[in-house]
Write a structure and sequence with these properties.
The chain has about 230 residues and is an alpha/beta fold. The protein has nine helices and seven strands, in the order H-H-H-E-H-E-H-E-E-H-H-E-H-H-E-E. A seven-stranded mixed sheet has the order 3-2-1-4-5-7-6, with helices on both faces. The structure holds S-adenosylmethionine. S-adenosylmethionine binds next to helix 1 and helix 4.
């Protein structure tokens, strides 16, 4: 596998958003987070997110915050040999997800998505995924949305940016969601989304792109953007 490219220093609060993904958490993530928490707590089964991948992944794909690589391993790429690049702040995540798709020889970049990505001047992608990433990032939605500014220069015209995020407001929470939101936002929790609303997410996307769609499924918003 390609060696991970080095990281620029990130703020403590930003590092905290990626730190919970230890090897122990990653070993139970697929079963527990994707298999139980997503459908039962957030009301959005992982297959719904996988369908979003299947609709949008291109032959040159960039995955921001790939986690365990569960989606990358299953996504229906339009070619048997897609070019993959994975970006994460957590080295353990890059190794786990990168290992899962090692046969595709992904490029691994240890980067903070809230800073310019510095992936190479001529590098371009047909698709960019940011699945369940925004709710980990600190700050206001305006600050979180700078991730769109950091990836757009790398997207080919006509390319797709897609993903999902758990929101606190403007979505349809089930019975278990309010308490889970509170617990997962505590000092050591992986989430940072108590102020995240559908209206703010939509305003940030609409301020940058003309062609987009946002769908709400339970506590989550799923967005699909075409870059013009
Ligand atoms: C909730 S997991 C989502 C994993 C995967 N996309 C999925 O849907 O299963 C969030 C991922 O974002 C990464 N992450 C969190 N903050 C980050 C940041 N500022 N820059 C880059 N990656 C970050 C975490 O390390 C983790 O891999």
């Amino acid at each position: 596998m390609t060696a991970t490219e080095p990281i620029a220093p990130a703020h403590e609060e930003v590092l905290a958003g990626a730190a919970p993904y230890t090897s122990r958490i990653l070993s139970t993530y697929d079963t527990w987070v994707l298999g139980v928490v997503c459908p039962m707590v957030w009301g959005c089964p992982r297959d719904e997110m996988l369908r979003q991948y299947d609709r949008s992944v291109g032959a040159r794909h960039l995955d921001l915050g790939p986690g365990t690589g569960w989606f990358l391993e299953r996504a229906a790429f339009p070619t048997l040999t897609p070019e993959l690049a994975l970006v994460d702040l957590n080295e353990g995540v890059l190794q786990k997800a990168g290992g899962r798709v090692a046969h595709l020889r992904p490029r691994l970049f240890r980067r903070d998505v809230l800073a310019p990505l510095d992936l190479g001047e001529k590098v371009r992608f047909d698709s960019v995924a940011m699945n369940m990433l925004i709710h980990c990032l600190p700050g206001t939605m305006a600050h979180k949305a700078t991730v769109f500014d950091h990836v757009t220069p790398y997207v080919e015209p006509g390319g797709r940016i897609f993903g999902s995020t758990v929101l606190a407001e403007g979505v349809r929470h089930g019975r278990l969601a309010p308490k889970a939101l509170k617990n997962l936002n505590d000092a050591k929790g992986p989430m940072n989304n108590l102020d995240d609303s559908l209206a703010d997410l939509e305003a940030e996307i609409a301020g940058r792109f003309e062609d987009f769609r946002i769908a709400v499924r339970g506590s989550m918003a799923l967005f699909d953007i075409t870059v013009r």
